[in-house]
Specification:
By secondary structure, this protein is mostly beta strands. Helix content is 2%, strand content 43%. The chain has one helix and 14 strands; from the N terminus they run ββββαββββββββββ. The strands form three sheets. A six-stranded mixed sheet has the order 10-9-12-13-7-14. Strands 3-2-1-4 form a four-stranded antiparallel sheet, with no helix packed on it. A hairpin with a 4-residue loop joins β5 and β6. It is globular, with a radius of gyration of 17 Å. 37% of the residues are buried.
């Protein structure tokens, strides 16, 4: 069973989710002045591990491939790929453990897939600003559909964008509260060179 407490400026809600079939069993709404989002997971009915499988983190060559002649890079972002950080990870990496580097002017094709059985997730490239429950601004239009609500289990969302400005950005899930729970990594646009993935375990 998963109990989710969520909120906005006008109301908050409580969702109770059946982890075995990923259906919302009930939702209770009440007025609240709070503007925050909290997730509490109870290790009942198999909810402690919300992934379909507890696999190993992806390798760099599985995450990023590229064509130097066409200056295109293919980036695979699997949300909740492992149980690490409670499933709040991309390809098995969280809180900046993964850095994706792609040169200026290249085009990036992103495949975003959600492997969580109980939570929705999104894949966005955002400004490197202080982390908050609501995330930061998306850059270059680089996001999966409906980033604040996310995609469900097994859903694949694809999008492409061109790198227009050198700098340091973040890969983040913009479902409310998820980035603050550690679901973010680095995305660097470099002046030159070739695409690469660098893994740094904390």
């Amino acid at each position: 069973m998963l109990v989710q407490f969520g909120g906005c400026e006008k109301h908050c809600y409580i969702e109770i989710v059946d982890c075995q079939n990923s259906k919302v069993m009930s939702k209770i709404k009440k007025l609240s002045a709070y503007g925050f989002f909290i997730i509490i997971s109870l290790s009942l009915s198999g909810c402690f591990n919300s992934q379909s499988t507890d696999s190993s983190p992806y390798k760099p060559h599985q995450i990023l491939t590229y064509n130097q002649h066409t200056k295109t890079a293919d980036l695979l972002l699997v949300a909740a790929a492992t149980s690490g950080y409670g499933g709040f990870n991309f390809d098995g990496y969280s809180v900046g453990e993964m850095t994706v580097k792609v040169p200026l002017g290249w085009r990036v094709n992103v495949e975003c897939k959600n492997e969580s059985l109980v939570l929705t997730h999104s894949c966005s490239i955002i400004k490197d600003e202080p982390i908050s429950p609501y995330g930061s601004e998306v850059v270059f239009g680089a996001t999966s559909p409906h980033p604040s609500t996310g995609i469900g289990y097994g859903v694949i969302a694809k999008y492409s964008f061109t790198l227009k400005k050198v700098g340091k950005y973040r890969i983040a899930c913009l479902v409310i509260g998820h980035e603050a729970d550690g679901m973010w990594d680095w995305f660097d646009i470099t002046k030159s060179g070739l695409p690469a993935v660098i893994i740094t375990r904390h």
